[in-house]
Amino acid sequence: MKITDIMTTDVTTCKPDITIRELASKMMELDVGSIPISDGERLLGIVTDRDIVIRGIAAQVSLDRPVSQILTSHLVTGTTDMSIKDAAEIMSKHQIRRLPIVQNDQLIGIVSLGDIAVRDRTDDNASMILEEVSESDNTRLQ
Questions:
Q1: Side-chain-side CA neighbours of residue 114 (13 Å)
Q2: To 5 degrees, how large is the angle CA 32–CA 9–CA 11?
Q3: What DSSP assignment string belongs to 68-103?
Q4: Using 50, 70 and 90 to split pLDDT, how confident is the model at 41?
Q5: Which residues, 6 or more positions from 6, have their beta carbon under 8 angstroms from its beta carbon?
Q6: Residue 67: DSSP 8-state
Q7: Pairing of strands 106-112, 98-103
């Protein structure tokens, strides 16, 4: 099974000049934990709810500043031709919960740990990723 079979393709993106406050409101409205940041032509980064808390609020960055100040720009991405297993291995290796799928620097879709857990019941991909990501989260908390 290919990653394109399970990825979300209707992904809302925001421009890098949107404020942190506006982005947080958009995340609440959409009930999502991250929003990719794009200039309309290419994927520039992603902002997660954790980025808002750690890089924004905890670092005392004004919520009226642009999200470009807190986004994760060194992205790990996948491609449309990869398998679910390949995506799971990348997510596990990099300890990430969401993998943007790109083609020619443009966002095509996004796959989350939840997508793999719900839609790929053929092996233990989701539990492998969750174990690695949870291990990373626990290490950071200590």
A1: 4
A2: 35
A3: GGT-B-S---EETT-BHHHHHHHHHHHT-SEEEEEE
A4: confident
A5: 84, 111, 115, 116, 119, 120
A6: G
A7: antiparallel
| 84-134 residue pLDDT tens | 999 999 998 998 989 999 998 899 999 998 888 876 555 555 555 556 555
DSSP per-residue codes, 9-58: -----B-TTSBHHHHHHHHHHHT-SEEEEE-SSSEEEEEEHHHIIIIIIT
Query: How many structural domains comprise the chain?
Result: 1
Q: Residue 80: give its domain's CATH number.
A: 3.10.580.10
Which pLDDT score, from 0 to 100, does residue 116 have?
Answer: 85
Q: Which domain holds residue 49?
A: 3-141
For 92, phi then psi, to 5°, come to -65, -45
pLDDT at 140 over 70: no
Q: Are 29 and 128 in contact (CB under 8 A)?
A: no
Distance CA 67, CA 83 (A): 32
First to last CA, the chain: 38
